[in-house]
Amino acid sequence: MVYDIAVIGGGPGGYVAAIRAAQLGGKVLLVEKDMLGGVCLNRGCIPTKTLLKSAEKWRELQNCHEFGLEADHIGFNFDAITQRKQQVVSKLRGGIEQLIKSNEIEMVYGEAVLKGQNQLSIRQGDIDTHYEAKNIIIATGSAPMTLPIPGHDLPDVIDSNQLLEINHVPASMMVIGAGAVGIEFAAIFRDFGSEVTVVEMLPTILPNIDNDVIKRMAPILRKQGIKILTNTKVIRIEQHTEGVKVSLDNGKAIQEIIIEKVLIATGRKPVVLGLGLETAGIDYSQLGIIVNNKMETNIPGIYAIGDVTGQEMWAHAASAEGIVAAENALGRQVSMDYSAVPGCIFTTPELAMVGLTEQGAQEQNINIKVSKFNFASNGKAVSMGETDGLVKIIAHAESDKVLGMHILGAHASDLIMEGAIAIRNGLTAKEIGHTIHLHPSLSETVMESAHGIHGDIIHQLILKGRK
After folding, report:
1. CB within 10 Å: which end of the chain, N or C, has fewer?
2. Are residues 104 and 164 in the same domain?
């Protein structure tokens, strides 16, 4: 049998591509070496957000007196928390399995290797089975990066996959890397009682995030009890009777810290080795497989999507790329649009972003206007007791089109979609501001910030010397 499309990898890019191809009438083969849902569902987005929700509930319970409530003898059961996490993952994975079946996609579990432009083999145990497909979509994702320092392979030095399998809350934990993954895990385990230290070699946490947002975020994390060491390198990790001893260099002195667990969260790398890319003649580097705006590689009929391309390493970007690749493979002519890819870091409060940062606009010499509105001035945020944060909008000074939106605050992951829709469709700040927003709602923070582009914020005090 010759398939119209063979998809290698069943993560949020791969299974979405397979379903879209089936919807368009294609005969589809989906290959997965581990579990449907990929890293996002099984070892990333979903399990971390499930843990995060338990951490939020625990924090709210501890602070319930602020809302006039009383609770005695409170506590948490980490075994039950991890069991719920696994139940959520299993339920969602079962849902994907049903989607695959209902779309009549042939599912094969095994390791796929390209054997040519239209050929691949799938290894199951010691058996290799050969398949033929008119088009192939590579969606093999990414894996945690290791840290090339002495001691990185000690038992108490773990990656994000291993941390999600831990059966207790470490008394102390060091997170190496202050990107999205590192900061999220730091916040979760600090809420559960770990003494958490975050180490980042760069001058600031969360590189590439808008500077104004980071200036607000870092103090919030420190207030929550997370110790942050920037401009600091890890030079050595050694075994110790109480865990591991980590040696740090901040450029001024060497510091040694005894810690129970060390999480390496220094990023992820595309999974490109062992796929037979050389055999198929596909251009790639350690940064990922090279594709055009149709998600096609240099070999006609072979596409790559998601983390394996090393571009936008978000699950939702992979899904969008999967749809583009599937449609192009089946004869449609569509292009991937990266102009408005939102992102979110699920801390408390959440941090979401889309489009240009202020510093990015300045680097491109774009004439802009900037407006900021504080959550503390929003009635719904005050009633919720979640007043930390702001909405920042960056608009073109002449056209008024929204170029960027950055939100630190409750439900930022939901609110950021106003910015994504605005950027994707060329909407102006005035159009957002003149759209009636429900009251009381957190969405009013976006409306007020949009008004501020033209100096018309209603519910925020005007500082002296400013109009």
Report:
1. C
2. no
